[in-house]
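[Automated response] Your request has been received and processed.

Submitted sequence:
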Amino acid sequence: MPVRVAYLSLVRVLCRPNFAFDASTATGYHRLLGSDSNSSPSGAVFYMLSQLVLNMFLIELCVGVLSSTYAMLKERSQGTALLTAQQKLWLSNLQTVLAAQPKVLMQPPVAPARMPCLLALRRAAFRLCEWPAFSHTIYTAICLNAVAMATHHYPSSLAFAAAGEPARAT
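Generated structure:
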């Protein structure tokens, strides 16, 4: 409804005599140069339609340029500008799976076809590696090893060098 009223007001303004020759200022209306013979209802309709078509075209053009530029900049910032369509689909699927954060459940080993006698040893090693304290023990050993390697310095005393040799030999 408001759009129709706006276009009706535009038609009324454009169809009145001398619409193209009047100018509104702070002091009132003033007559511009020209004559009355150039104003007609068909000229008003042409003016209104040209404004409508040109404005709609320019709006569509600006929105198209803005949206394509945004999409291009988004691809560049995400690092997907050089990917093919299949690679983008794979990346999208990967992001979906990673967003779900599935928990990996480790399965105990099964008996190999060639050496079934090693199954008990493999299961014992699996239980040891899955034991919660095992990872803390490994992290502690790694940190102690890093500290032992970091204490090596030059010049070091003979006693320090002799004490550090067995630790560095591993």
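Summary generated for your ticket: The two ends are 86 Å apart (CA to CA). Strands lie at 22-25, 28-31.
If you did not submit this request, please reply to this message.
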